[in-house]
Design a protein that fits this description.
- It is a single chain.
- 38% of the residues lie in helices and 11% in strands.
- A seven-stranded mixed sheet has the order 2-8-7-6-5-3-4, with helices on both faces. Strands 9-10-13-12 form a four-stranded antiparallel sheet, covered by helices on one side.
- It is globular and about 80 Å long.
- The N and C termini lie far apart (56 Å).
Length: 485
Amino acid sequence: MMTTRDHAIQLDDEDPLKHLRSEFIIPTRGDLKAKTLAAKPSDESSYEACTYLCGNSLGLQPRRTADKVAAHLNAWAKKGVLGHFTEHEDSNLAGFLHVDDQAAKLMTPVVGALPEEVAIMETLTANLHLMMASFYRPTKEKYKIILEGKAFPSDHYAVESQVTYHGFDPTEAMICIDPEDPATSTLSTAHILAAIDIHASRTALILLPGIQYYTGQYLDIETITAHAHSKGIVIGWDLAHAVGNVELSLHDWDVDFAAWCNYKYMNSGPGTVAGLFVHEKHGKVDLSALVSGKKAYRPRFAGWWGGDKAIRFEMDKHFVPIPGAQGFQVGNPSALAISALIASLEVFQLTSMSALRQKSLALTGYLEQQLLDSHCTGDGKKCPYQIITPSDPARRGAQLSIRLTPGLLDKVLSELEHSSVVVDERKPDVVRVAPAPLYNTFLDVWSFADVFTHACMNAQEENTSNEQEVVGLRGREEKGWSQIK
């Protein structure tokens, strides 16, 4: 049976991380319904917090973001260009020149990396292109790229365009791994390893998601990376749905490269600056070889912001990259966007990824329990939804993806919106629900499940009633036609 609202409140009272919710601005019911940003709540219920379970799409704003952004704007206003080199006693933001370094250092414990292995730069897809420019080195013999069949479209486009750019046919060069059983929507580790084995002799690169955006499945990064390396294949990871969601050990797992956005579980704002990981073995710079004109560093698309800071402003045409991931930077990143990212990273510093993961497992497990024990499954009726995310907690992050019976999605979403419940949907019939451990509560999960299951039953009954009405009309039409004949 579904637990009670009081039980959810009790679980929240016992939560050791409950104080972190106060670090975020939770939109109210009135906020969601308001037509203007300046609108004031019309009634008492409008002041109630909404149920926001959409951190897998866009994380909520930390309270400290506004102050951090204002500090940057103030430094720009009062110092102009001198703000690149000036620090202030009343702000912990580095000067514009070094603020990306500051953010990269704060990011390292989130992704399990060495400080020199992380760069804050560009956007996710741009970083994937930059990584493939360096790591996709196709030959006539080895030119294929292995990816998943339901990759996020931007990843698919990026791979396809890289393959085409190098003169290969995407239908031959792109190996898309589909589930063994289409009904499951997920990929077993064994199935992925088998696909690598089949195509290893012709494969130049593998690009996979840490967490699959549609199903929420958490792939075994360590095992798959080791297997790729055993076949002599470079492997990169899109960690858009993994960073800030699950514990990562990119350095220890020997990942070649990874890229991610920072607006989902990292709560840094829509379209904000992204992140990049390059393993230290790929970021070395041999200065002695550089002096003698020999190969001194990994090939890449270079730009001035990836050049040695000590000589960056000498405007020399001889590129000397910064050792590590920052040597792959191209243009100077937005200090404005980075200030918002630093605000979020400071919240992460208040806890650990291990503690967040433990709470996440509890929240998502509670969500699963609520959905499986729902009264939707009672009265002998078939449940109008199924969870397509793996049931094994180790094989998923915060997100559960729920596939509805065809024809229910729009009606269910309408009821959720009416009740100020914010989730994400993927047409034609999937709802994605992601309780983020930094700010979501067990009461949020209980409230969603309560509204969602009732919405499913109402939509199901409405569809059944409409079908019966159609059948009745058809019967009357047939009877009338027989009388006419």
